[in-house]
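Researcher: We plan to redesign the surface later, but first we want a full-length starting point. Tokens attached.
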């Protein structure tokens, strides 16, 4: 039997399919991956150190630029930590608005992430264009309420910047009526497609025990069959008031992660409809007006709070020394933690499968390189 020498191949850091400025050093035996090492740091922006040099309010727009697809949920994770640190109450109406925009963000993320993953297979532009179409509708809603489409800077300590009105609610309800057909079309196109089945089934398998040991979270963990979701395990905001299911996979491969994200979008629609039905009347406050946003000085202490972002557990840790700036500001970023399992997911597969497996993790380098 012919034995060839192993080859070391650099994928990136400028490779167009690596979801950002990111490098993978792959050791190959022929076309089979023997070992793979992720290399970060090309996008490092001193995010955490900048946070320690600015006031609590000034950090809020910085969080937009972590997972820049999901600024709304980034805002919430940070706001939740400051509220815990400073014992700030959030009005009822604001809690519902937060849930609505967060779940819209989850739909936006998964629709786009799946489109990119299919594109990574070298298959169809159709799925990506459909996903981007739905993303645009949600960005229109974000622009209506925050004034901007991506870097929303919408949350404040004790609420949100501005209320939603009847026009916005009507636009949101119209979106909820139309988006289920997108899910159905997506599944009709892909679920039984021969290319999808060959490129996704039994590819990038992450066993349940390994997923837990790597501390991965989000759809990657649930795709491996672990029904862990912070919205259910440790409900924050008002998530304990809503009925929704936690979809899980059986094998833990690329195909399971795809199916989990499709079903999670359906569950997000379900949550938003409940939130709109339960939304307190317009007389309810959208922000706690007693909070002095610009001059906030939490008491000495520390706090950690976490949210279920579309990519997994997004956590913020703050230490206060009683001044107007955090003494310590640190982030638990799901993209960074989930990448730790990449080498095991790729080992034994062909080099052509690596980019597809990476796409199924769904990373954004803005929160990997902090």
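Model: Full-length starting sequence:
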């Amino acid at each position: 039997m012919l034995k060839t020498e192993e080859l070391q191949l650099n994928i990136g850091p400028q490779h167009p399919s690596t979801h950002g400025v990111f490098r993978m050093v792959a050791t190959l035996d022929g076309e089979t991956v023997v070992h793979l090492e992720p290399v970060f740091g090309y996008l490092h922006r001193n995010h955490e150190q900048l946070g320690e040099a600015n006031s609590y309010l000034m950090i809020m727009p910085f969080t937009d630029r972590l997972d820049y697809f999901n600024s709304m949920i980034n805002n919430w994770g940070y706001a939740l930590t400051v509220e815990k640190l400073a014992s700030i109450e959030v009005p009822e109406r604001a809690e519902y608005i937060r849930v609505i925009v967060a779940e819209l963000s989850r739909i936006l993320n998964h629709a786009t992430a799946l489109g990119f993953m299919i594109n990574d297979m070298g298959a169809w532009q159709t799925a990506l264009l459909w996903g981007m179409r739905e993303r645009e509708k949600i960005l229109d809603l974000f622009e209506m309420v925050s004034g901007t489409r991506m870097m929303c800077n919408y949350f404040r300590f004790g609420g949100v910047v501005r209320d939603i009105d009847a026009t916005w609610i009507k636009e949101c309800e119209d979106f909820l009526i139309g988006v289920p057909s997108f899910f159905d079309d997506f599944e009709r196109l892909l679920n039984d497609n021969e290319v999808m089945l060959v490129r996704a089934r039994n590819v990038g398998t992450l066993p349940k025990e390994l997923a837990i040991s790597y501390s991965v979270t989000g759809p990657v963990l649930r795709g491996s069959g672990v029904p862990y979701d912070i919205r259910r395990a440790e409900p924050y905001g008002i998530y304990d008031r809503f009925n929704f299911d936690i979809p899980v996979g059986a094998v833990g491969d690329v195909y399971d992660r795809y199916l989990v994200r499709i079903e999670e979008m359906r569950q997000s629609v379900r949550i938003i409809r409940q939130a709109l039905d339960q939304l307190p009347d317009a007389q309810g406050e959208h922000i706690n007006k007693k909070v002095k946003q610009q001059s906030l000085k939490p008491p000495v202490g520390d706090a950690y709070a976490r949210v279920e972002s579309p990519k997994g557990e997004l956590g913020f840790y703050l230490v206060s020394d009683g001044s107007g700036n955090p003494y310590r500001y640190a982030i638990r970023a799901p993209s960074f933690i989930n990448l730790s399992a990449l080498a095991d997911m790729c080992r034994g597969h062909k080099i052509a499968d690596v980019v597809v497996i990476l796409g199924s993790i769904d990373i954004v380098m803005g929160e990997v390189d902090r």
